[in-house]
Design a protein that fits this description.
About 40% of the residues lie in helices and about 15% in strands. By secondary structure, it is an alpha/beta fold. The chain has a single domain, classed as Glutaredoxin. Helix 2 packs across helix 5. About 30% of the residues are buried.
Length: about 180
């Protein structure tokens, strides 16, 4: 009886471990064509532009940063990294930046108004969008299979997702963007 119990425990552990690894492998869509964002609420759009989507950036390398205004990791690492990478490419027209709040919890705090306040707080002059809210799960999160926030997505000139994960250092982002700019 002890052997059967031990065997069942081992089989259960292997199954749970494989299930967990399978779920982790399902996050992100690196290597795939970047889907539409389906974002309708925007702040700081370029002049004469009513809305943005991934197709608006064809021909550029795009750094897309997903956040929630109440996310400690977003403020501790995500926004500082975003600021560093933006500063590095300040005069480079081949690289673009967009931040989208992908609300999936804390809906009273993670509002569009709060996203606008975050843009002001960090002095970011890039487009800020809002995806998701109390009545609607973030379409961007579903389409890009993000695992939460902070989440960084880097898309090449042809609209293919090349990085899609929780965190990237500024140095690694710069290396990847430079490589993508070359070809």
């Amino acid at each position: 009886m002890r052997r059967i119990t031990s065997l069942l425990i081992c089989v259960s552990f292997v199954f749970l471990q494989q299930s967990s690894e399978s779920q982790q492998q399902q996050l992100g869509i690196a290597g795939h064509k970047a889907p539409s964002w389906q974002v309708s609420d925007w702040h700081q759009l370029p002049d004469a532009v009513a809305k943005l989507d991934v197709s608006s950036y064809r021909g550029k390398v795009l750094y897309l940063y997903c956040f929630q205004s109440w996310c400690p990791g977003c403020h501790k690492s995500g926004f500082p990294t975003l600021q560093q990478v933006i500063k590095h490419y300040a005069d480079d027209e081949d690289v673009a930046f967009v931040a989208i709040q992908t609300s999936f919890e804390g809906f009273r705090t993670n509002t569009f108004e709060q996203a606008r306040e975050v843009a002001r707080q960090y002095g970011l002059k890039i487009p800020f969008g809002q995806s998701g809210g109390r009545d609607q799960r973030s379409a961007l999160m579903r389409a890009y299979r993000t695992g939460g926030t902070p989440w960084t997505i880097i898309i090449d000139r042809d609209g293919i997702v090349r990085f899609n994960d929780y965190h990237i250092s500024a140095a690694k982002a710069v290396r990847l963007i430079d490589r993508l700019k070359q070809g």
